[in-house]
Write a sequence for this structure.
C-alpha cells in the first residue's frame, strides 16, 4: 500500500462517517415531523422483515402529522406495534384505515434533550473520524519498513491530520445546523 492509497482510504471512511451522521441526525426530532423518523423501523410482512415504507404509503399531512396508509388493512396493527417497539417518542393512533403520528409541540426541556442527543451523535462521529486517523497514521508509519522516505511519511501524516480537521469541522457544521433546527420555535 502507498501513502496515497492510505489517504484515499481514510477519506472514503471519513466520508461514510459523515453520511452516517447525516442519517442519524434525521432521526432526531425537530420542530416538524418527517417520514425519515420511521427509517430503520421494520415490520413483519408475511414472514420477512421489511421497512415500513415498503409496506405502506408514508406521507406528512402537515408539519405535525404523519399518515401511514398500509397496502393491506391487516398490516395496521403490525405497523402500530412496530412503531411502539421502536420507541421513537411518538404514540401511533390507529383509526381503522390509517395509522397517524401526531407530534406534539416541543417544550424547551424536550428541545434541550434533543440537542443533547444530537451532540452525542456528533461526538460518536468525531470519535470515529479520529479512529480512522489513528489507523491511517499507523499504516503510514509501517511503510517506513518498506523503504518509504521520512519526508513522505511526515507529509502523509500531515495530510491525514488535515483531512481529519476538515471532516471534524463538517461534523460541527452539521451539528450546528441541527441544533438551530431543533431550537427554532
Amino acid at each position: 500500500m502507498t501513502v496515497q492509497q492510505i489517504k484515499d482510504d481514510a477519506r472514503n471512511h471519513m466520508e461514510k462517517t459523515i453520511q452516517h451522521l447525516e442519517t442519524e441526525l434525521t432521526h432526531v426530532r425537530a420542530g416538524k415531523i418527517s417520514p425519515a423518523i420511521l427509517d430503520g423501523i421494520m415490520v413483519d410482512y408475511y414472514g420477512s422483515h421489511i421497512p415500513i415504507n415498503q409496506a405502506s404509503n408514508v406521507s406528512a399531512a402537515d408539519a405535525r402529522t404523519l399518515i401511514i396508509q398500509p397496502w393491506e388493512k391487516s398490516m395496521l396493527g403490525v405497523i402500530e406495534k412496530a412503531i411502539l417497539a421502536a420507541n421513537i417518542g411518538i404514540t401511533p393512533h390507529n383509526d381503522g384505515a390509517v395509522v397517524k403520528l401526531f407530534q406534539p409541540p416541543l417544550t424547551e426541556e424536550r428541545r434541550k434533550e434533543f440537542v443533547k442527543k444530537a451532540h452525542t451523535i456528533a461526538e460518536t462521529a468525531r470519535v470515529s473520524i479520529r479512529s480512522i486517523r489513528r489507523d491511517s497514521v499507523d499504516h503510514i508509519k509501517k511503510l517506513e519498513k518498506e523503504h518509504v522516505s521520512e519526508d513522505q511519511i511526515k507529509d502523509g501524516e500531515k495530510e491525514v491530520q488535515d483531512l481529519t480537521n476538515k471532516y471534524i469541522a463538517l461534523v460541527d457544521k452539521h451539528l450546528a445546523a441541527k441544533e438551530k433546527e431543533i431550537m427554532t420555535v
The mean pLDDT is 88. The first helix runs from residue 3 to 26.
